[in-house]
Each structure stands twice: as C-alpha cells, then as structure tokens.
C-alpha cells in the first residue's frame, strides 16, 4: 500500500479544509475539491480520501463500515490514524447505501461534550443529481436549501434525522461523490425528505 | 561544507505544527455544526501572551492559506499596537498579503469590534475571546457551567438580568452582551459593543471565535438566528450617541469614539479606522444594515 | 501625551522593540554568555525549565538572557518554543528509585535508609549579603576549586535503599486517599483540562505551574485555609534516566534529566466508624532543583484530593487555573491593551441610567428603591 506522494500535507490540507469548512457552514451547498491523481482502493472515492487526509491523524480514530481492509490500510498509511470499532470511532467512512444501523451505532457525544459525536463521511453516487431530494433549513441556510443526491438510501437519511433530533447530541455528515464534489449536513440542520 | 543549523530559526508555514492545525480544524467543524457551543481544544502556546489574542491566532493560522488577504483590527483600528504586532507575526509566518481595506480582505481577525462595513460570504471573520463562558459572572465553576449549557439550564442568567433591571432600570450590560444562538446555546459575544450585536444575526459570513487562554473554540455559521437576551418589556437596544456626529466627517450612523483634547474639550470620531478613512476619501462604503440602525434618525 | 493606540502603531512598536534591546545593551558591558548563565544562574535556569515545561538548560539560559532575567518572560518564551517542536514519543514511566541522588532528606524520621544527604543547599547558610562576590575573579574561582578538590561525592545510586514511603507502606500505614479515584492518564498539553480533573492532569498542571503561585496556596493551607499540614516524608534531588520505546517496540535509554521529588505525608483521620486512621501522601515533581515547588505541589496534591468546599487550596479549579503562570501573566497584563470600546459601551449605559434618574427628578438610589417596591406590589 503506497503513500500518496502527490499530496502536500501542508498546502493541500489547508486548501481542502477551507472547502470543507465552507460546506459545513453552508449545509447543502455543493463544493468541489480540486481533483488530484490519487489512487485510493475501490470503494473509496478520491474526495472521501481527501476528506480523510485533511482531518485524520494519530490523535483520532476511524472506522471503515463494512470492514474493507484495503481502505482501512490506505487511510492508516496516509494519515497515521488508528482504527476503532464503529461505536467509538471519531470518523466513520461508509457508502450512501449503507444500513441505517451505521448511524444508530456511531457515537453521538454527551450533553456536556456534544463535540465528541462522530463525523460520517459518506460516498454517494452523485451530488446534485438523482431522485432523492432533501430540503434543509436551519443554521447556515438562507431560508431553505434543496439538494438532490443519488446513491443515498432513504432509511439512512431517516436514521440521521432521528439521531440528530436530540440536538446537541448527534453526528455530522460529509457527503462525497466520484467527481470530487462535497456537501455537508451538520447535526444542526433540519432535514426534510421530499 | 557543513552548515551549522542548530541556532537557525525555521518555522512551519503558519507557525503551528500540522498536527495541531488538524486538531483545531476538526474542532472548528464541530463548532460550526453545533452553533454557540464551546468546544474544548488543546490551545498550544504561541509567542504572543495569553490574553493577547492567542485563540484568534490559532483559528487564523489553522485556516489561512497563501492566497488569503489578511486584515486585523483591535478596538476597530488596523493601526492599533497589538494589531500591528499580530499582523507582523501572521505575515512573517505565512507570507500572505495584508490589507487595511475591509472589502479586500478574505480573512479578518478582530479584537472587540465588528467592522462597520458589511461582511460578505467570501470572507471569514475571526474574533479574539477573553472569556468564552457567558455564565461565568453568575457561576464561577467550569464543571457547573458545562452542565448548565448541556441541559440548557439558564435560569441563573435570566435572574441576573432581571436583578440588573430592578436595580438600575435597565439591563446594565455593556460590551459583550450575551445572545442566544439558534435558539439553544447562550453565547459570549466577546466585548464587542451592543452596536455590533445585531450584525451577528442572519449574517452572510461565518463568525469563528477563539479563546486561547481558556482553550475553547465556538462558531456562528452564516444565516443563523442570534438573539440578544431580553424581556418582552425590557428590550435590547444599541448604544445611544444622542445625535453626536464624527467631527471629521459629520457621519453619525457608526459607533463613535469619545476623545478628549488637551484643553479637556470633547469630540466624537468614527471608531472603525478603515471606515473613517473611506469616508474621508469619499470612497464607496457598504455599511451593515440592521433594524436597530434603521431606527436611527438620518 | 501618552500612548495613543491608533495611527502610528507599527512605528511605535518597532521603536519599542529597539528601545528595549537598547536598554539591555546600552552599558556596553561584556555580553553574558549562555554558558555563564546556565552554570552560575543554575537555579534560575531550573525554574525557567520547570515553568516553561521544557527540559533544555541551554535554551532556558538563552531565554533568561533574552528577557533580561525576567523569569515569567523567559518561561513564556520557552513554552512558546515547545509549540514549534515535533512530538515523537512519550517516555516510559520514570522510576525515581533509579535516581542518582544528589540530595535526600526526610523530616519524618531522624535516620533513614541510605542516610540523610543534605546535598547542595542554602537551607543552612546564613542569608548575609556577601559583598565579596563583587570582587570575584577567574583566579578566586580557580583557588576555590583547587581547594575544594574532588570532594564532591559522586551522586549515589538510590536503588538499594528504600524510600520512606516504602517503609510506611510495608507497615500498612500508607493508604490511598480514595480507592476509586480517577486514574485516567491525560496529556494536558494535547487537550484542554476538564473538571473534575483526574490526578494525572492535576499533577501535570502543577508540574509546570508558577512556583510563587503554588507557594501562596500551599502556604495558605498551612495557615488554616486548608485541611492538611503535612511533613516531608522524603525530598530528593538528582538525575533520573529517561527511556522511550522505538517504533519496533524496543525500550531505549535516551539520557538523564534532573528533577526534585517531594513525598509529603499527612495523617488521614478515619472517615467512617471502626475505620482505622492512616497516613496518605501528597506528591510533587518538577524539573531541576526547586524544593519550594516540589513541596508545595505535594501540599496541594494532598489538599485537592479532599475538597472541603471553602479553602482555595482544596479547590481544583481555583488551584490549577490560577497557578498557571503563563496564562496568569498574559491575562493580568492584557489589562494594558486598549479597552476603550468596552468602556464606551459602559459609559453609554451609565449615562443613560443617570438620565433616567434625573428624569425621575429624584436621587438615583431612591428611584431604584421605588422600582423595587413597585415590582413587589401585588397585581
């Protein structure tokens, strides 16, 4: 398993983080990460890999839902982050068609420390396309924002709604697709399925 | 030839090591996801004194890039001594461009004021925070204030506002007026004047708050409800300059500084130094607009 | 005139920087070498390392030189320097039983295993100002060293001798304060402290706390503002080995550091009926030779484990937040920064209150009292 040598841990991480920060601050807004010739294993998009590179390191843990060893090794080698089980991981990597149980079992934080709730990085087929239409309201959204997603299961969204109903407890969602697009739904968003 | 590098100073881009930048970046994402919640972070030491802006610097240095154009103000002024020192530091550590012009900046760090000119969705505003805990004046213990926030138990705060009204006929809070964010967390606004508070509400720009000494980060995303604490019959109001005008420009709809001459005479002048410069030079200005400003006589 | 915090700020600070450097150099005395500071101002260097939280005598000496001897400033410089260094390892647990002893004393017993070793201390000197030091020369130094010869005892290995606490423990006299005390291991330089804090966090905070702050609070607890009057079970100063685990898992020795360790012993009355009273320990450890700091750490460690709800020395948040020297110096000094905007906000409020009082045409206290009475009237 090779380290990605094209990635600059100082300047790429910073640039990509700004894209992520903007996406988390403006739920439903589709941003684009600069494409780069990465070679992640099948099952992990380049965008999801970049999210991992920007945020993971030895101080936090991750879990690859479904247990794909190649993806786990790729992330560990490139970030020095360590694996954890689903219930304790700080970052969970999954695909949009994963079972709702993923969200149910992730850590949600505590009332005193809700920031300990985990982050879900979800690879979907396409952002801005597809039949599933979500309308978001709340912090970061001017009025309402509608986003289409393909390759995201309805039951997963429902699980997310239920999980985040106990705000400030909850998990925060980062969605990525194969075209380096990224969009976020923080736990503060109210999600309506159209 | 062997170069003696032992005593040569070499700094990472933006001073902070990458591992700490990542930690700050992760915590900022959580802070944005939970508006108004104070997220603990490691807050490493900086070459600037604690209490002099290390938190603001942590945020700025964790997110700044080579392309950013950086502005920093203290009490509304770009040329204030501490702002100059921090600007030098940021510039030395990143090589990025700096500006006094509010509209040209992409990243603005501030001590205790929001600019008079409106901020846009292409900018990020970073505030230095002396005391991140809005409940500290009514509860000295951290473990208790954390519980109070967790349970949204803000009774003590409301009681203290009521007592202030009963004693003084008004809520006698000046700079750093507490607000409720997203209808959930009561948040410390840092000692910005009441004048600036309405500009936090439903803004175009994200506001990021860094309390270095107390080791907390928090955030208000754009388009978020931010309501100053008030009673139905005792409402929030901004400072009343009672018709005073800036002696240099005649402008009255900005926060004014009271200044005294050698003979003891008093004058008023626009506090925001870049705004004042633009007014004096006849440049286009795009001030913030909010319901409290609209109520002022023209 | 005075300092106008507006235009010309950049020039003002550039001039101030040059001026302070001028103050350091203006008498044109021969530059003090870093080596002179680290060898002749050893205890200042130890204090700076202890409060900066970095074991680096040479850099501590440079920091003292840079700050013209101001210890707070030097510790701050060292602390900021740490941020630039890469963290590679956590050391293996250091066992002070492996100490090469330079000083070992106990107040609890007259004789202890291995004997009482006073070591290099000014405890039993008379604090008479020695003006002959004004005339010290390389020659007088040489003469002293020749006369002294090689009488400095080589540091003794502590290994074979029991610690005083071992003696107490063996007899069943020493017990932990609280069997279910939080023993989580935290790194307070990597995460913000949370309260109630586990003991590891409390000891770490104190290990790099400001000596004077710890001393004030430790002292207060001996004068009735606390619940403990311990005695020195054992105080040691010497060097201990530091080891780390390399990436293959092998443990490697990387050198020695000098530390002062204090084990303070107090009597613990029994809490429950039929429970036998016993002794407990307060622990202190810091870089270099600093008896005051280690002893006060031990006093406060003991105090904080039995909070009494009224003494500052037993109050974790009070002790840990307010003995943090770098933060304390920064925040108290920040009051010098311009605060005129906040002040303007206060002026606005107070003037409005005065206007309200004038409008009511009565004295302010009376109108406020009226307000209170009106509020109490039944609907």
Short description:
The complex is a heterotrimer of chains A (194), B (298) and C (379). By secondary structure, chain A is α/β, with parallel strands linked by helices.
Distance between the termini of chain A: 42 Å
* Overall outline of chain A: globular
Mean pLDDT of chain B: 93
Portion in strands of chain B: 15-25%
Number of strands of chain B: 12
What does this structure look like?
The complex is a heterotrimer of chains A (194), B (298) and C (379). In chain A, 26% of the residues lie in helices and 26% in strands. Chain A is an alpha/beta fold and 194 residues long. In chain A, helix 1 packs across helix 2 (46-55). The longest helix of chain A has 15 residues, at 11-25. Chain A is globular. Chain B has 2 domains: 18-228, 3-Layer(aba) Sandwich (Rossmann fold); 240-281, no CATH class. Chain C has 3 domains: 12-82, no CATH class; 96-123 and 135-331, no CATH class; 340-376, no CATH class. Chain C contains 14 helices and 5 strands. In chain C, strands 2-1-3-4-5 form a 5-stranded antiparallel beta sheet. Chain C is globular. The chains are: A alpha/beta (194), B alpha/beta (298), C alpha+beta (379). Chains B and C meet through helix 3, helix 5 and strand 11 of B and helix 1, helix 5, helix 12, helix 13 and helix 14 of C.
Which features would summarize this protein structure in a list?
heterotrimer; A: 194 residues; alpha/beta; Rossmann fold; 7-stranded mixed beta sheet; 3-stranded antiparallel beta sheet; 5 helices; globular; B: 298 residues; 7 helices; 26% helix
Topology:
The complex is a heterotrimer of chains A (194), B (298) and C (379).
Chain A: H1 11-25, E1 31-32, H2 46-55, E2 61-64, H3 69-79, E3 82-83, E4 91-95, H4 101-105, E5 119-123, E6 126-137, E7 145-150, H5 154-163, E8 172-176, E9 181-185, E10 190-193
Parallel strand pairs in A: 2-3, 2-4, 4-5, 5-8
Antiparallel strand pairs in A: 1-9, 6-7, 6-10, 8-9
Chain B: H1 18-33, E1 39-40, H2 54-63, E2 69-74, H3 81-94, E3 97-98, E4 107-111, E5 124-128, H4 142-150, H5 155-168, E6 179-181, E7 185-187, E8 207-211, E9 216-220, E10 226-228, E11 256-260, E12 266-270, H6 273-281, H7 291-294
Parallel strand pairs in B: 2-3, 2-4, 4-5, 5-8
Antiparallel strand pairs in B: 1-9, 6-7, 6-10, 8-9, 11-12
Helix pairs in contact in B: 1-2
Chain C: H1 9-25, H2 34-40, H3 42-52, H4 57-66, H5 71-82, E1 100-105, H6 138-148, E2 156-157, H7 164-170, H8 199-207, H9 211-222, E3 231-245, E4 251-268, E5 278-287, H10 291-304, H11 316-322, H12 325-333, H13 340-360, H14 364-376
Antiparallel strand pairs in C: 1-2, 1-3, 3-4, 4-5
Helix pairs in contact in C: 2-3, 2-4, 3-4, 3-5, 4-5, 8-10, 9-10
């Amino acid at each position: 398993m090779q380290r990605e040598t094209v990635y600059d841990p100082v300047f790429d991480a910073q640039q990509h983080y700004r894209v992520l920060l903007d996406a988390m601050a403006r739920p439903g807004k589709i941003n684009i990460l600069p494409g780069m010739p990465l070679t992640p294993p099948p099952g992990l998009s380049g965008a999801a890999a970049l999210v991992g590179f920007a945020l993971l390191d030895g101080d936090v843990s991750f879990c690859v839902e479904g247990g794909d060893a190649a993806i786990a090794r790729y992330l560990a080698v490139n970030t020095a982050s360590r694996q954890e089980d689903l219930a304790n991981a700080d970052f969970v990597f999954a695909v949009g068609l994963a079972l709702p149980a993923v969200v149910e079992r992730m850590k949600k934080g505590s009332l005193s420390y809700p920031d300990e709730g985990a982050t879900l990085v979800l690879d979907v087929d396409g952002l801005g396309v597809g039949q599933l239409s979500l309308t978001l309201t709340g912090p970061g959204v001017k009025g309402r924002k509608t986003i289409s997603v393909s390759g995201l299961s309805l039951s997963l969204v429902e699980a997310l709604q239920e999980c985040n109903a106990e705000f400030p407890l909850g998990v925060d969602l980062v969605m990525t697709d194969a075209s380096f697009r990224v969009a976020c739904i923080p736990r503060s968003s109210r999600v309506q399925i159209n | 030839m062997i170069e003696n590098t032992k005593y040569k100073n070499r700094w990472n881009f933006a001073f902070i090591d990458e591992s700490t930048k990542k930690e700050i970046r992760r915590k900022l994402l959580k802070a944005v996801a939970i508006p108004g919640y104070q997220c603990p972070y490691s807050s490493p030491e900086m070459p600037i004194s604690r209490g002099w802006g290390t938190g603001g610097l942590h945020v700025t240095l964790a997110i700044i890039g080579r392309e950013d154009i950086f502005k920093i103000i203290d009490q509304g002024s770009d040329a204030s001594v501490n702002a100059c020192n921090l600007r030098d530091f940021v510039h030395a550590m990143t090589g990025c461009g700096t500006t006094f012009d509010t509209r040209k900046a992409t990243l603005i760090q501030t001590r205790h004021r929001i600019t008079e000119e409106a901020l846009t969705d292409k900018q990020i505003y970073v505030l230095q925070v002396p005391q991140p805990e809005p409940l500290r004046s009514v509860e000295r213990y951290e473990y208790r204030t954390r519980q109070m926030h967790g349970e949204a138990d803000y009774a003590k705060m409301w009681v203290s506002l009521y007592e202030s009204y009963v004693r003084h006929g008004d809520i006698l809070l000046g700079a750093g007026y507490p607000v409720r964010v997203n209808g959930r967390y009561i948040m410390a606004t840092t000692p910005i004047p009441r004048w600036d508070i309405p500009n936090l509400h439903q803004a175009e720009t994200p506001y990021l708050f860094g309390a270095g000494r107390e080791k907390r980060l928090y955030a208000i995303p754009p388009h978020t409800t931010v309501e100053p604490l008030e009673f139905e019959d005792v409402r929030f109001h901004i400072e009343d300059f009672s018709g005073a005008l800036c002696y240099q420009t005649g402008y009255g709809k900005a926060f004014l500084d009271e200044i005294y001459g050698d003979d003891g005479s008093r004058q008023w002048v626009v506090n925001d130094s870049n705004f004042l410069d633009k007014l004096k030079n006849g440049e286009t200005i795009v001030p913030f607009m909010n319901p409290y400003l609209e109520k002022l006589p023209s | 005139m005075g300092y106008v915090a507006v235009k010309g700020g950049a020039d003002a600070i550039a001039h101030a920087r040059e001026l302070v450097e001028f103050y350091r150099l203006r008498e044109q005395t021969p530059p003090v070498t870093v080596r002179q500071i680290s060898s002749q101002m050893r205890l200042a260097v130890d204090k700076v390392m202890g409060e900066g939280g970095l074991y680096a005598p040479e850099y501590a000496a440079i920091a003292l030189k840079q700050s013209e001897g101001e210890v707070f400033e030097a510790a701050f410089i060292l602390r900021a320097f740490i941020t630039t260094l890469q963290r590679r390892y956590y050391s293996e647990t250091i066992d002070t039983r492996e100490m090469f002893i330079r000083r070992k004393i106990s107040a609890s017993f007259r004789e202890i295993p291995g004997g009482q070793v006073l070591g290099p201390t000014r405890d039993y000197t008379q604090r008479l100002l020695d003006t002959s030091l004004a005339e010290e020369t390389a020659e007088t130094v040489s003469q002293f060293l020749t006369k002294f010869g090689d009488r400095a005892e080589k540091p003794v290995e502590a290994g074979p001798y029991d610690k005083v606490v071992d003696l107490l423990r063996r007899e069943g006299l020493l017990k932990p304060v609280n069997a279910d005390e939080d023993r989580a291991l935290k790194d307070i330089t990597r995460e913000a402290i949370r309260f109630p804090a586990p003991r590891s966090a409390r000891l770490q905070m104190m290990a790099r706390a400001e000596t004077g702050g710890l001393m004030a609070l430790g002292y207060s607890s001996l004068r009735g503002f606390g619940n403990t009057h311990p005695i020195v079970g054992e105080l040691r100063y010497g060097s201990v080995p530091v080891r780390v685990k390399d990436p293959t898992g092998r443990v490697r020795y990387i050198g020695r550091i000098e530390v002062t360790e204090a084990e303070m012993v107090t009597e613990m009355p029994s809490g429950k009926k039929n429970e036998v009273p016993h002794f407990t320990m307060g622990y202190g450890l810091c870089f270099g030779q600093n008896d005051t700091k280690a002893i006060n750490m031990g006093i406060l460690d003991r105090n904080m484990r039995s909070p009494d709800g009224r003494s500052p020395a037993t109050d974790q948040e009070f002790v840990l937040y307010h003995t943090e020297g770098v933060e304390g110096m920064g925040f108290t000094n920040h009051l010098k920064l311009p605060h005129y905007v906040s002040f303007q906000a206060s002026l606005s409020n107070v003037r409005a209150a005065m206007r309200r009082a004038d409008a009511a045409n009565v004295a302010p206290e009376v109108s406020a009292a009226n307000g209170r009475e009106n509020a109490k009237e039944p609907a």
